[in-house]
From TrEMBL:
Quaternary organization: Monomer.
E.C. code: 2.1.1.228
GO BP of this protein: mitochondrial tRNA methylation; tRNA N1-guanine methylation
Transmembrane parts of this sequence: none
Protein name from the UniProt record: tRNA (guanine(37)-N1)-methyltransferase
Native species: Chrysemys picta bellii (Western painted turtle)
Broad EC category: transferase
Origin superkingdom: Eukaryota
Length: 506
């Protein structure tokens, strides 16, 4: 019985430390031990054992502050819709080490792993009592008993510093809290506070959810405050479903200047973000296509936007033909050509993609293809990045050119983008390309997953050389008849190509 009694006494002491309290709540520490401790704590003799425990140097922190709450702003900010920075102020108690100023720098290096790191906060402060310094420590990073671990004690010994940890009332202000801590304190408890945004030059582009809308101006201002260089925050207020693929946006905070300058793959672009399409998430894809090009190649960019394929291709000394229907995109495309000093390598157009393919592209292919030989083998590429609709434009290639089919390896390569909500997006996109080309691409195309746009919606790129039987007008009647694509045999209840494509729009 006595042994058991001691065992319970020992476990109770351990449980009173922060380490064990955390462990008990986070792991499957037997609940029965906790009950036993609660029971025995009520006995005066047991209480004495616990109080005597030398681990209790800072009981108020151990007892009263849950880890998560330690770095939260003042609770009265909950529900705030107009940012009042002063209201976030809060005093917390943190451990400090008293250190002679002569050794401070060396010591800081050795104790970096346990010092307090907060935005805008100094780790070392003057000791108001004398010439010494106080090093602020992170309560989460020092051992449970609120004393230093063996290795830290060893370091202090070398510097002849007293390992005694004392407490310090530290005032945290709005500047010392992180965006997420601020938003978690303001928004209703339990609601998602995701504060992610895309940066386009000085603009932060947010995509707020409905429950965040009452706090939209505050969220926008916090993003500006916490991200140097951002002076304006905007929220998307409609889905992209208009012709020019731009979206309406509302300025949440900061200056309402939408003309921005940004860099992608080492190239600078300027544009009016409210009037053109720009998506920073496509930078890898832009780079991937540019990697395929060699100097001297020809690029036709059917839906060019402000130039993220066209300009780097021209920089790489390719001949570029770029087109966009949106007059604003066209204006900024011209501007970016000048800005990047490639206006001599690019011919720009402002017309519908179909007209561009039937006009300038056809004309150029008619001129270029006969000149290409096995020796002079510049490749021709046609980029079609309008994922909701581009696949529908592929029928333009059917019998686009007169004359004799050129050698297969000289045929232009199309990179056509498409959304897919299908379980097998690669197969889906290939089938639709086959529908509009009127031939099978089996074994002569590749598909690439560009990005997941939504949980069940992928952006794909299908690349293929336009089959000669598609591109050239038939020379004689006994030519090969193209294999009827599997996709043409629509399954029962399947949408028509038109309906399916409309449903794929974002
Ligand atoms: C998805 S954006 C792609 C822009 C750019 N290529 C990029 O990768 O960021 C599609 C572009 O196609 C343009 N566009 C939409 N319909 C068009 C059409 N029928 N003909 C030509 N351009 C069109 C839009 O204005 C927009 O700039």
């Amino acid at each position: 019985m006595r042994i058991l009694w001691r065992l319970y006494g020992y476990s109770a002491r351990l449980l009173k430390t922060k380490l064990f309290r955390t462990a008990a709540s986070n792991t499957s520490f037997p609940e029965v031990w906790l009950l036993l401790v609660q029971y025995f704590e009520r006995l005066p003799g047991f209480f004495w054992v616990v109080q005597r425990n030398s681990f209790f140097t800072m009981p108020e922190i151990l007892e009263n502050k849950a880890d998560l709450e330690l770095y939260s702003p003042h609770p009265e900010v909950r529900g705030m819709t107009t940012l009042d920075r002063a209201a976030f102020k809060r005093t917390i108690v943190v451990p400090v080490l008293k250190v002679k100023k002569e050794v401070i720098n060396k010591l800081l290096k050795s104790l970096k792993h346990i010092t307090l790191h907060r935005p805008g906060l100094k780790r070392v402060i003057d000791d108001p009592k004398d010439e010494d310094r106080l090093v602020l420590l992170d309560p989460h990073k020092i051992s449970a008993e609120y004393s230093l671990g063996e290795s830290e004690q060893e370091i202090l010994k070398q510097f002849n510093i007293d390992p005694q940890v004392s407490k310090y009332n530290l005032e945290l202000t709005y500047d010392n809290f992180k965006t997420e801590e601020i938003l978690r304190a303001v928004l209703p408890v339990g609601q998602d506070v995701t504060s992610g945004f895309t940066r386009i030059g000085h603009i932060a582009h947010l995509n707020l959810r409905d429950h965040q809308l009452p706090y939209k101006h505050l969220i926008g201002q916090v993003i500006i405050d916490k991200n140097p260089g951002i002076t304006c925050s905007v929220n998307k207020i409609n889905i992209i479903d208009n012709t020019y693929r731009n979206f309406q946006m509302e300025v949440l905070a900061g200056e309402a200047n939408m003309i921005t300058k940004t860099r992608e793959n080492n190239i600078t672009y300027e544009f009016d973000f409210s009037k053109v399409y720009w998506n920073s998430r496509l930078s890898t894809e832009h780079g991937r296509i540019i990697e395929l090009l060699k100097p001297g190649d020809v690029l036709f960019d059917v839906f060019a936007g402000v130039g993220p394929f066209a300009i780097p291709a021209a920089k790489k000394k390719c001949s570029v033909f770029a087109n966009d229907l949106n007059p604003e995109s066209y204006k900024w495309l011209l501007h970016n050509c000048k800005l990047n000093k490639v206006d001599k390598n690019i011919k720009n157009f402002n017309m519908d993609g179909r007209d561009f393919l039937l006009g300038p592209v056809k004309e150029e292919l008619t001129k270029e293809l006969p000149l290409l030989t096995k020796e002079r083998k510049n490749t021709l590429h046609i980029v079609m990045n309008l994922p909701a609709l581009a696949i529908k434009f592929l029928d333009v290639f059917k019998h686009l050119l007169d004359g004799k089919p050129c050698s297969t390896d000289l045929l232009p390569t199309v990179h056509c983008y498409s959304f897919s909500k299908h379980d097998s997006p690669a197969k889906d996109v290939q089938e639709w390309a086959e529908v509009f080309l009127g031939t099978s691409l089996e074994g002569r195309c590749s598909t690439h997953l560009v990005r997941s746009v939504a949980p069940n919606k992928e952006m794909m790129c299908i690349s293929f050389q336009i089959p000669a039987e598609v591109l050239f007008k038939k020379q004689c009647t006994h030519e090969e008849s193209p294999v009827e694509p599997a996709s043409k045999r629509l399954r029962p209840n399947e949408d028509s190509p038109e309906e399916k494509l409309t449903s794929l729009k974002d």
